[in-house]
Amino acid sequence: MAIFSEYLDTVKYLEPKLEQEFPAQVLVIAGDLTSARIDEINSNFDASYPHPEDKYKILLSSDKISEGFNLNRAGMVINYDIPWNPVRVIQRVGRINRISKKVFDELYIVNFFPTETGAELVKAREIASNKMFLIHNTLGEDSKIFDIDEEPTPAGLYLKIQQNPESKEEASFYTRMVNEFEIIKQEHPELVRALDSFPVRVKVAKRQDQDELLVFIKKGRLFIYRARYDQKEDTGPVEVTFDEAYERIVCGVDEKALKLSEKFWHIYGQIKDLRERSPLPPGPRGLEQQAINNLKTLLNLPPDNQLSGYKEFLRTLLEDIINYGTLPDYTLRRIANLEAGDEKKMGRTIKEIEDLKNELGDNYLEKEKQRQRRLEKEIIVAIENKKS
């Protein structure tokens, strides 16, 4: 099980009590996350970890690890308190409710509230409801935690948690990367300083469980390609996201470099040719692809439609998504939700496009183009994995 509290003092208060009941079975995260601590969390609570352990049965932590970690070997989350921001509760539960690997048929969520006497003094339940109500109204309809017609209640929050446990996963992964980089800076500052002297082309091989090549190409936006050597059918390189590539490239500080294989240069050349040949990556991530498809649909409408005056701006959005990648997921989601159906849907679409145009500006992409013209270097990092 995983027990979360918003406060470090509470974690320290619970630690001796749990240790007394479950000696040597409680992993407590109350301070800095060292690499050794992260390894203990992953090996004992992440079902996808390659070297699992069963040293700990209970994880007691503050919100330090409420995002960015897989804890799906824990079948229960205990919320010892309800944070001011209900999103924190969603993140906590999202740690054990993982789509990637099922461990338990049923998951349990336990929420602590003060006794009736305590509640009368601190009004905890009412405060929780009011916090959610304020967030609900401040963020607007598109960001509601509850259904449109539902009065905000604590029960409504947990229903939403169960319906959409991973709504913050992309941000969580980014946060995890930032945290891990901070650990590297603290424990191995010489590695970070060495980055300044790296060449713009890096090619390296290391040991892994598959023979493959991952190539990162950065000029403006980042493109990542993966080619597996041992596939029965030669499907060629495919584009992957950073979180998909991460587990394939991560290694310890003492990892030894291997000699590049005979296949390396041929596959490396294929990937470079693929990138130079086609400005549109072969497989953009889902949200980008939805936005691209929507924009193409709108641009292909008959010339006398209501969107004719917005065609140039729509082309700018399309060019940005394909070649520059400056738009955040929030904006991509708005574009992906545009509809060209009946008059009512078209009215909403026109209103959304007008809002985007006012927020971004007619020529917003020109600034990015000018910035990239000043970038002479194209950075390429090629990492080959070898089984032997």
Topology (SSEs and partners):
Layout: E1 2-4, H1 8-21, E2 26-29, H2 35-45, E3 58-61, E4 76-79, H3 86-94, E5 108-111, H4 116-122, H5 124-139, H6 154-163, H7 169-187, H8 189-194, E6 201-207, E7 212-219, E8 221-228, E9 238-239, H9 242-249, H10 264-277, H11 286-299, H12 311-324, H13 329-336, H14 343-360, H15 364-373, E10 379-386
Parallel strand pairs: 1-3, 1-4, 2-3, 4-5, 6-10
Antiparallel strand pairs: 7-8, 7-10, 8-9
What does this protein structure show overall?
The structure is a single chain. With 388 residues, this protein is an alpha/beta fold. It has two domains: 168 residues, P-loop containing nucleotide triphosphate hydrolases (Rossmann fold, 3-Layer(aba) Sandwich), CATH 3.40.50.300; 190 residues, no CATH class. Helix content is 46%, strand content 13%. The chain has 15 helices and ten strands. Strands 2-3-1-4-5 form a five-stranded parallel β-sheet, sandwiched between helices. It has a five-stranded mixed β-sheet with strand order 6-10-7-8-9, sandwiched between helices. Helix 11 runs antiparallel to helix 12 and helix 11 packs across helix 13. It is globular.
Helicity range = 40-55%
In the predicted model, the low-confidence regions spanning at least 5 consecutive residues are: 138-152, 157-171, 280-284
Class based on secondary structure composition and strand pairing: alpha/beta
Count of β-strands? 10
Rounded mean pLDDT is: 77
Share in β-strands: 5-15%
- The Cα radius of gyration reads 25 Å
Biggest pleated-sheet summary: 5 strands, parallel
**Number of DSSP helical runs:** 15
**Net shape:** globular
Topology order in helix (H) and strand (E) letters: EHEHEEHEHHHHHEEEEHHHHHHHE
Count of the separate structural domains: 2
What is the straight-line distance between the termini?
38 Å
Instruction: Give the strand line-up of the largest sheet.
Output: 2-3-1-4-5
